[in-house]
Amino acid sequence: MTAPAPAYPLPPASLLQLIWLASPALPVGGFSYSEGLEVAVERAGITTEGAAAAWLIAQLQLTQARGDMAALQQALAAWRAGDHARVRALNGWVLQTRETSEMRLQTEQMGRSFADWLRNHHAGDADRLGDVAVLAALPPTYPIAFALAAASTEAGARDVLLAYTFGWAENMVQAAIKAVPLGQSAGQRILARLAAAIPAAVDQALRTGDADRQAFSPMLAILSAQHETQYSRLFRS
Fold first, then answer.
1. Exposed/middle/buried for 160, CB within 10 Å: 0-12, 13-18, 19+?
2. Is residue 6 over pLDDT 60?
3. What is the pLDDT, as a whole number, of residue 90?
4. Quick check: pTM over 0.85?
5. Which residues are CB-neighbours of 121 under 8 A, at least 6 positions away?
6. Alpha-carbon gap, residue 63 to 94, rounded angstroms
């Protein structure tokens, strides 16, 4: 008896597009940022595999799920509805949550690079290029740019957030491998712990409305400010 073909929740083209968007190879520059991890190694004792894993899981739950991921899933709906006023408001909120110049530089640089990629990717598609023009004029932030890129797929918000967050996790694990430093096997163990925590973080983000979004992470802001004058560093944040 022939086994039934696996049932995928997404059309293959949409699934592959999400994998593509989440890839660290996407030319948006995510590899050059550690989001405070590098200075945490120097000043906050993040010097072991266990400490790095705990730091990243806390960052996933306290900053990503409550902030950028919540804004992204709301922006996804806004892009699909053609609600550019809502997109601008969400983008403005993301900018306001960046408490240091390097944090703002990261989200703007990655947002601009994403806009450039989208402009090339959708060349010849007038409707998509119109949305890209709206994005590029904001100035764009990375979560809002990712939402636009995912809006052209048939993926639901949960699948989009799963892809986005796993891409974030891969970038952060690579930063940990370089900054702590750690071996590749340790990095894979940390990634496994993050992957196990991501679904709950995604569900939290999906439940988070405008009144509940927040970016309260004072220690991260302090460490980021210290990183801006750190004597020797590998990363831009």
1. buried
2. no
3. 98
4. yes
5. 149
6. 12
Q: What is the pLDDT, as a whole number, of residue 182?
A: 96
CA dihedral sign, ordered 153, 154, 159, 161: positive
Tell me the pLDDT tens digit for each residue of 133-178.
999 999 999 999 999 999 999 999 999 999 999 999 999 999 999 9
What whole-number distance in Å separates Cα of residue 126 and Cα of residue 133? 10
d(CA 54, CA 62) in angstroms, rounded, equals: 12
Contacts of 216 (CB under 8 A, 6+ apart): 62
129, containing H or E segment: helix 126-136
Closest C-alpha to 115, from 92, 146, 85, 154: 146
Contact 58, 202 (CB under 8 A): no
pLDDT band at 8 (very low <50, low <70, confident <90, very high): low
Which residue, 171, 164, 146, 172, is CA-closest to 202? 164
Can you tell me the distance from the alpha carbon of 112 to that of 60, in angstroms, rounded to the nearest whole number?
24
The CA–CA distances, whole Å, from 96 to 1, 124, 214, 216 equal 59, 34, 11, 12
- Whether the CB-CB separation of 114 and 28 falls below 8 Å is answered with yes
Q: How far is the C-alpha of 175 from the C-alpha of 194, rounded, in Å?
A: 14
Euclidean distance between CA atoms 110 and 30, whole angstroms: 7
> Is 99 strand, coil or helix?
coil
Q: Which two tokens stand for residue 211?
A: 């009144």
- CA separation for the pair 42, 51 (Å, rounded): 13
Cβ contacts of residue 200 below 8 Å, gap of 6+? none
What token pair was written down for 16?
A: 């592959």
